[in-house]
Amino acid sequence: MSSRSISRVCAVLAAGAALATATALPATAATAPHSPVTFGAIQYDSPGKDDGSQRSLNAEWVTVTNTGRSSVNLKGWTLSDRSHHVYTFGAFTLGGHNSVRVHTGIGRNTRSDVYQDRRAYVWNNAGDTATLRDSHSRVIATRTWGRR
């Protein structure tokens, strides 16, 4: 066998060993499955004076966007901030290539807008992190702004 052939055989064996090692990792080492759901625009600083009115609270929102073609059932998914304010989606299906705005205040849910029904602001203007988790508590998306 020539040295070139031996090199090729060694390369094939090394690649096979690497593949076998990678597939032998425990399931807990796996990351969250790829999801077409992500964050769109976020309005964390309600325009105008923060006066605590429902109008002002509802001008603070996070957009959740489905970039895929198929609908995604968001029931049991959560949206949270660094201070552990948590909004849990009820029965809600996000259509393919659609978005929903999650408003902080009180309102009537529609296909494009849902409300956390809070009477106080959630998102810190100076800095915060929005985290979206699926119904199995796996992190699907995060977005951070401002100071940490």
Summarize the structure.
With 148 residues, the protein is α+β, with helices and mostly antiparallel strands. The chain is built from two helices and ten strands; from the N terminus they run H-E-H-E-E-E-E-E-E-E-E-E. Residues 5-31 have low confidence and may be disordered.
How would you summarize the topology of this molecule?
Blueprint: H1 3-23, E1 37-43, H2 54-58, E2 61-66, E3 72-73, E4 78-80, E5 86-88, E6 93-94, E7 98-103, E8 113-115, E9 127-133, E10 139-146
Parallel strand pairs: 7-8
Antiparallel strand pairs: 1-2, 2-7, 3-6, 4-5, 4-9, 9-10
How would you sum up this structure, described in words?
- The chain is α+β, with helices and mostly antiparallel strands and 148 residues long.
- It is 18% helix and 32% strand.
- The chain is built from two helices and ten strands.
- The chain has helices at residues 3-23, 54-58, and strands spanning 37-43, 61-66, 72-73, 78-80, 86-88, 93-94, 98-103, 113-115, 127-133, 139-146.
- A hairpin with a 5-residue loop joins β9 and β10.
- The chain is globular.
- The N and C termini lie far apart (60 Å).
- The model is unreliable at 5-31 (pLDDT under 50).
